[in-house]
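Re-run with default settings, no changes from the original entry. Doing this only to confirm the output is reproducible before filing.
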Amino acid sequence: MVHPYSQDLRERALNLINNGMSINRVSRLLKISRPTLHKWRDRYLITGSTFPKISVPPPQTSIIKDWEEFEKFVETNHDQTHASNGCQLGKL
């Protein structure tokens, strides 16, 4: 998983840009891509914040189509492990 840049680095980069240093120079100095610096600056101008966006994974669709059948399966096989039951869950 990709980890976002630290908040401190984001603030330092934007301070350099706001104090007149070019994005190209900040990019070379801090080893941050120019598009990333443009995104941070634009986000700051729009929201007033440099915090990264919260990443929310998309919802996962269930492979279980028949919940009553699944409940019966669980009651019948509750003491078995995935390996010992031959993975019958995929058949529901």
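The mean pLDDT is 85. The CA atoms of residues 74 and 80 lie 9 Å apart.
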